[in-house]
Design brief:
Layout (H helix, E strand, L loop, with lengths): L2 E5 L1 H7 L3 E4 L8 H9 L3 H6 L7 E4 L2 E3 L10 E5 L6
Parallel strand pairs: 1-5
Antiparallel strand pairs: 1-2, 3-4, 3-5
């Protein structure tokens, strides 16, 4: 299952890319499991995903909690909390 990952703000800066296409194993079934799997890919991923309380996610452009099931998404975005101002 190929997924287009999108990263924003300091998450993108830590990883070093704004997007990447990934193919996680079938055992990855929630956003949290996806983040765990991604964190093992590089030091940048590990830094970006170290503090899960600072992360938000969207699956196919719908905001979801990190515990949400993945299903078969085409796109997952990971970003910091959005603030207004």
């Amino acid at each position: 299952m190929a997924i287009d990952m999108l990263y924003f703000a300091w998450v993108r800066e830590a990883i070093g890319v704004g997007q990447e296409r990934i193919d996680p194993p079938e055992s990855v079934s929630t956003v949290t499991q996806l983040i765990d799997w991604l964190a093992a890919r590089s030091d940048g991923h590990a830094r970006a995903f170290a503090d899960r309380s600072r992360l938000r996610a969207a699956v196919d452009q719908l905001f979801v909690p990190l515990e949400a099931p993945l299903g078969r998404p085409r796109e997952v975005a990971i970003f910091p909390p959005v603030t207004g101002g």
